[in-house]
Amino acid sequence: MPKNAATEAARLSVAPMMDWTDRHCRFLHRRMSARVLLYTEMVTAPAVIHGDRDRLLGFDAAEHPVAVQLGGSSPAELAQASRIAAEFGYDEINLNVGCPSDRVQSGCFGAVLMERPQLVADCVAAMIAASPVEVTVKCRIGVDDQIPETVLPAFLETVAAAGVTRFSIHARKAWLQGLSPKENRDIPPLDYALVHAMKRQFPQLHLSINGGITTLAEAKAQLAAGMDGVMIGRAAYHTPADILLAADHGDFWRGDTGQDRRTGGAGDAAPYRGAPGTRRAAAPGDAAHAGPVRGAARRARLETPPERKRPSRRGRARYRGTRAGRGDGARCLIANPARAAKRAARTGQGQGGFPSRHGSVNRRGNRTRARPQMPELSEFLPMLALILGIGGFAGVIAGLLGVGGGIVLVPAFYFAFESLGYGPAGLMQICIGTSLATIAVTSLRSLLAHNKKGAVDWDILRHWGPGIGVGAVLGVVAASGLRGEILMVIFGVLGMIVGLYLAFGRATWRLGPQMPKGVGCAVSSPILGFLSVLMGIGGGSFGVPLMTLYGVAIHRAVATAAGFGILIAVPSVLGFLMIAGAPENRPPFTLGQVNLVAFVVVVAMTLITTPWGVRLAHAMDPKPLKRVFAVFIIVMALNMLRKAFMG
Q1: Which of 278, 315, 484, 567 could make an SS bond with 428 (beta carbons 3.0 to 4.6 A apart)?
Q2: Beta strand segments in 165-213, E
Q3: How far is CA 228 from CA 9, 63, 208, 212, in A?
Q4: Confidence of residue 117 (pLDDT cuts 50, 70, 90)
């Protein structure tokens, strides 16, 4: 397909929408319109580089013209991802500078990049240099307190200077603080006039307008106002028959010469060949297009042209035989697209009868449960191998040094999942929630074992337990709302403190003769629970040093800290399980903010390997090993800080 084919098709495009414009939806849309430009869901550059590329980028050849939308802020990563996407045969590579999701912000991409136009210019310059495919940008008119009339022209000028000639502009400011992504679609007012002014100011650029356009008539009005293209989002999903079918079988694609582009008139880029998989397109003289048609017959022709009433058996079989054609609901999507379109228009629901990871809507408008998507074996086995190693190491360290596994598990989970291409949006929360889930089990086992020996100080637990539980709940609320970078900074700073204490702490240090009660306990206990949840650790890392500093014998401190771990882990895990995670690019088998595979494997491995660490502790001098481990913790904490500040 020529390089400008996507530009030709951008006269009307379907916006990229997470969990909506997947490969099955795009294939259906292509059967309704042969000309509209289709976009993939956003996929992050690290996921393309490290993840399952066939799953993330694979599409059917019938979808052309089709564009892939990338998310990221690293020029090197975006360049590499662009090369990979170009090899898959996409007609356009689009950079996301418009998504307002807080989890997208945590990865420093999406709408937050409106504040860094030079970085966007560096990114697109690297993408253009790395790929022969046309690179475009989808952006907002501004974010937060920016003045769009000032920001948008400067942004377009800076990015255009790097080589981008085509932009899709969402004519609504994004509020990154205080509004949800859903609210960002409605509350900030639309400013079509500003986007029209940008077209007059930059006539050399191809500008498409997006936001609030719900009908084909509104799209035509935008083109009449001077825009080069129109991008439609949820309306194209809810009522595809009214937009996509009507566009191809009306006068939407009619050129300046007055001839319908479907007939291949003079001046047109290419003749209309009908939707992929159909036998042929109707010619002007065909009976299907001859003479006026009234009533039901006219509506049937508009919604389901005769040549498209049902895709050819060969086309359907070929699609189902490809990897793109397998998965949730692919068969029902391609069997009768007209029926699916009418059902979508009838229900008017968000899922419109189209299957997705979040379920579909039945004929009565009720949401049905989605079938879980099973990961590919090639994707699952590397993750399983890494988690096995993490669990074994954490168990040995816990038995050898008496240090809770959370201080090891959180950074280990993060770097393991990241190396496999997952995240970064919401990844730190998943690591914390999963770590605490394992601690709930191991702490209970440890508490029961220590209680048999009479080592647990139940008086301390009675006084400190309620405050620790309250702090844990507050920690879940805070962790779910904080950006990943902030959680990484918190872990790095507190990890440094723990590491330094392990390296240089002395048994003779004291803060007082006994554990605080009354006001001291009421203040300190919630802080202990709160900070422990933000780090994803149990009671050992903070509880043991704290109790020894108040004169509690080390064996009683370790035993009682296991009780702290239960009080921290149980309420926090319940909270993390109920918090909906970012659907994009999460590790498989993640429920809420807890990865079930990592939880089961790590618990099993720690039960096996902790006794090994105990035997090593009795056979070796633990003091030098404790210092080595302290250095290890400090290095991990520094690396987490580096990751938070430098990416």
Answers
A1: 484
A2: 166-170, 206-210
A3: 10, 22, 6, 17
A4: very high
> Tens of pLDDT along 59-108?
988 899 999 999 988 999 999 999 999 999 999 999 999 887 655 554 56
pLDDT digits (tens, 9 = 90+) for 590-624: 888 898 988 999 888 888 887 787 677 667 666 67
CA distance 325 to 59: 9
Q: Which of 8-22, 98-112, 406-420, 448-462 has the lowest mean pLDDT?
A: 98-112
Q: Which residues contact 618 (CB under 8 A, 6 or more apart)?
A: none
- Exposed / middle / buried, residue 256 (Cβ in 10 Å: 0-12, 13-18, 19+): exposed
In whole angstroms, what is the distance from residue 315 CA to residue 333 CA? Answer: 13
Query: Phi, psi at residue 379, to the nearest 5°?
Result: -85, -35
Q: Is the peptide bond before 65 cis (omega within 30 degrees of 0)?
A: yes
Q: What are the catalytic residues? A: 99
Residue 420 near residue 383, CB atoms below 8 Å:
yes
Distance CA 255, CA 25 (A): 28
Cα–Cα dist 547/457, whole Å? 11
The two three-digit tokens of residue 572, written as one number: 């926090």
Asked if 432 contacts 533 with a C-beta cutoff of 8 angstroms, the reply is yes
CA-wise closest residue to 414 among 76, 644, 110, 630 = 644
Characterize the bridge pairing of strands 229-232 and 360-361. unpaired
Based on its alpha-carbon atoms, the radius of gyration of the chain, rounded to whole angstroms, reads 29
166-170 and 134-140 beta bridge pairing: parallel
Nearest to 95 by CA among 146, 44, 152, 129: 44
Residue 251 backbone zone (phi > 0: left; psi -120 to 50: alpha; other: beta): alpha
- Cβ partners under 8 Å of residue 329, min gap 6: 24, 354, 355, 360
φ, ψ of residue 107 to 5 degrees: the values are -90, 5
Residue 354, token pair as written in the block: 């189209």
Q: Phi and psi dihedrals of 368, rounded to 5?
A: -100, 160
Give the pLDDT score at 361: 38
pLDDT tens column, 280-338: 333 333 333 333 333 444 334 434 433 333 444 444 444 444 544 444 444 344 444 44
Counting Cβ atoms within 10 Å, is residue 203 exposed (0-12), middle (13-18) or buried (19+)?
Answer: exposed
